[in-house]
What we know:
Domain CMP/dCMP-type deaminase: 8-130
Protein name: Cytidine deaminase
Strand content: 15-25%
Largest sheet: 5 strands, mixed
Oligomer: single chain
EC number: 3.5.4.5
Order of helices and strands: HEEHEHEEH
Distance between the termini: 16 Å
Strand order of the largest sheet: 2-1-3-4-5
Keywords: Hydrolase
Family: Belongs to the cytidine and deoxycytidylate deaminase family.
Radius of gyration: 15 Å
Amino acid sequence: xTQIPAEDPWPRLHAEAVxxxxxxxxxxxxxxxxxxxxxxxxxxxxxCNVENxxxxxxxxxxxxxxxxxxRGGGGRLTHFLCVDGESRLIMPCGxxxxxxxxxxxxxxxxxxxxxxxxLTEVLPDAFGPHDLDRPDxx
Length: 138
């Protein structure tokens, strides 16, 4: 069950994402991205994009965020947002929505340019452990 924070988490998450975007390594595209999320235990995790001359091996900000989540002890993401280098809200790509689904679940909330939306709205019928025909993962 998603916990409701005692205070509005969005301003804090936006500030964290903006700060993360400042540390992005984007020498090829020049497109900086920062992401921040609230973990169910109250921690905030963040990440930035890291490009590579071999474009296909670049890391999205969401990848760094999820790595930070697990490095810090794991848990479930409850609130998430992503910004560009101009501090504007952006939508995670499809691959990253799948990554967020695995680590936040269907009730995770995303702050998007069109408002606050549950993950089920931005990734309906998500593929997950329940689809792997393994009862131990369901």
